[in-house]
Amino acid sequence: MKLMSGKKGLVMGIANEMSLAWGIAKKLAEQGVEMAFSYQSEALYRRIKPLADSIGDIPLLECDVTNEESLKELFSKLKERFNQIDFIVHAIAFSDRNELTGKYVNTSRSNFTKTMEISCYSLTAVCRHAWDFLSDGASILTLTYLGAERVMPNYNVMGVAKAALEASVKYLAVDFGDRNIRINGLSAGPVKTLASSGIGDFKYILNWNCENSPLKRNTTLADVGGSALFLLSALSSGITGEIVHVDSGYHVVGMKSVKP
C-alpha cells in the first residue's frame, strides 16, 4: 500500500513545473493521494492544467486568497468533490519585485501590506475556512525560507512576512492541536523557481550555497517533495508547530548577508 492511499487534500500555489508546490504535488501523487489544485488567474490556469493532467484527474479551482468570498467558494467546491480533506499545502507568497532590491527601510506601505496579506495572513484565512472541513489528524504545510531568521540579500519585506508566517504556524498549531491536526513550515534552501527569479543576485546565492553546503549541492524539487511528504503523512504524527529545514546546510554553514 502507498504511504498516503485514500488521503485527500488541497495544494495551493503551483505556478509552473519549477514550483516547489509542484514538486510536492508530484510526490503526493506517487503515494496515492487524491487532490485538487487552486489557482488565482486564467494565466496560471493555462500553466498548471497540463501539469494536473499529467498526474491524474485533478480538479482546478479558482481562488483569490485576498477575497473572503473567493475562499468560501473554494471550500464549497471542494466539498462537492471530497467529504473532507486530510491535508493542505499552502505555497503562496507575493511581493513587488521592484522592492526586493536596495534597502528594506525603503519598503512602501502599500507593498508591505500586500506582501503580509498574501504571504502571511492568507495561511490563517485558509485555515479558518478549512476548519470544519479538515479530518481529525489532518496536516497543514506552508513554505518559508531562511530569510525569516536571518537578513538575506535582496529578500527585504518578504523576510519580514516569512517571519510572521513562521510565528503564525506556532499559534495555529495550538489552535488546531486538540483535534490532532498538525501544522508545520518547510524551509527550503535556494531553488530556482518563478518566485526566486524576482530576488536580485539569486544566481550568486545559488552558487554560494552549492559551494558551501555540506552536501556540495543545491536543494532540489525532489528534496522538497520528499520532506513535504513526511510532514503531511502519519510518519510525522508527533511533529507540529515546527519549521523544518531542507536547505543543504544554509543554517549550519552560515551566509554573509551581503555580497563580498
Give an account of the 3D structure.
By secondary structure, this protein is α/β, with parallel strands linked by helices. Helices cover 42% and strands 16% of the residues. The protein has eight helices and seven strands. The protein has helices at residues 20-30, 42-55, 68-81, 109-130, 156-177, 202-212, 221-232, 250-253; strands at 8-12, 34-39, 60-62, 85-90, 134-144, 182-188, 243-246. A seven-stranded parallel β-sheet has the order 3-2-1-4-5-6-7, with helices on both faces. Helix 4 links the parallel strand 4 and strand 5. Helix 4 (109-130) packs parallel to helix 5. It is globular.
Entry summary:
The chain is of the alpha/beta class and 260 residues long. The chain is built from 8 helices and 7 strands; from the N terminus they run E-H-E-H-E-H-E-H-E-H-E-H-H-E-H. Residues 251-260 have low confidence and may be disordered.
Tertiary shape: globular
- Beta strands, count: 7
Calculate the mean pLDDT score and round it.
Answer: 89
Task: State the major sheet.
Answer: 7 strands, parallel
Task: Please give the share of residues in helix.
Answer: 40-55%
**Which secondary-structure class do the elements indicate?**
alpha/beta
Strand order across the biggest sheet? 3-2-1-4-5-6-7
Computed Rg: 18 Å
Which sequence of SSEs, written as H and E, runs from N to C? Answer: EHEHEHEHEHEHHEH
